[in-house]
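Reminder to self: tokens first, then the designed residues, so the page reads top to bottom the way the pipeline ran.
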């Protein structure tokens, strides 16, 4: 299941990620956003997740505003410190309405409810896309990339990693060549197969087949060494993604 979290408190967002992975390590938290604006932009430009977890009070307004600007048909779970928005929440395709602080039990109950609904819909001959669709998303197998004015086509198996540097995103192949691609890191997360590629932090997405070695690093992080590349560039797994990375790497 591919999940997006919309929460403007980092500690709360990190806690949701932890609880989700404890519930089911195969869950993929593909993005976390802090505002209505960020979430709307994402939903307008990327494939929609199977489930969204949304705080109601965000840094730039209420999360209900998202659904006035974007047509989103998949389930959502609202999370808030207030109980007066329950009616508004259930006017949208809301599976549950959880009051903070979120517990393992409350979130597990909500996701189990989603699974039960999906099963009931399937028996009735209806479809609830996130859990009954047999079709696997189509992921990119080839990228067009540039060095200067020259255009190259690189298959995903030859890609070592992607790196965002300011507003430019580079594709780096397994021999160390660097190309410019016309995608953001967030867009690449949707285009790449999640079993093959992993977002280490804000700047890097790595191919599992390109990882040569992993070492413990400062502040409970991990340092990644890429085959064929020098270690001049510090490539690390951010602390909040270490547990998810380990689960992904061992899958």
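Designed residues (251 positions):
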């Amino acid at each position: 299941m591919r999940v997006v979290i919309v929460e403007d408190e980092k500690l709360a967002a990190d806690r949701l990620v932890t609880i989700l992975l404890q519930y089911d390590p195969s869950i993929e938290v593909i993005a976390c956003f802090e505002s209505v604006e960020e979430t709307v932009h994402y939903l307008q430009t990327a494939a929609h997740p199977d489930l969204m977890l949304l705080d109601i009070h965000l840094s730039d307004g209420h999360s209900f505003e998202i659904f006035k600007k974007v047509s989103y048909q998949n389930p959502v779970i609202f999370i808030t410190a207030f109980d007066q928005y329950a009616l508004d929440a259930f006017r949208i395709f809301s599976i549950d309405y959880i009051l903070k602080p979120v517990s393992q039990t409350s979130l597990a109950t909500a996701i189990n409810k989603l699974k039960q609904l999906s099963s009931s819909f399937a028996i009735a001959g209806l479809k609830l896309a996130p859990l009954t669709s047999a079709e696997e998303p189509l992921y990119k197998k080839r990228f067009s990339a540039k060095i200067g004015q020259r255009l190259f086509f690189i298959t995903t198996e030859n890609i070592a990693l992607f790196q965002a540097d300011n507003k430019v995103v580079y594709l780096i192949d397994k021999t160390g060549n660097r190309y410019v691609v016309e995608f953001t890191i967030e867009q690449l997360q949707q285009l790449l197969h999640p079993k093959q590629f992993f977002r280490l932090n804000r700047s890097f997405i790595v191919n599992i087949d390109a990882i040569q070695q992993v070492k413990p690093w400062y502040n409970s992080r991990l340092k990644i060494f890429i085959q064929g590349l020098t270690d001049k560039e510090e490539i690390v797994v951010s602390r909040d993604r270490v547990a998810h990375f380990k689960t992904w790497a061992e899958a």
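Confidence is low (pLDDT under 50) at residues 120-136.
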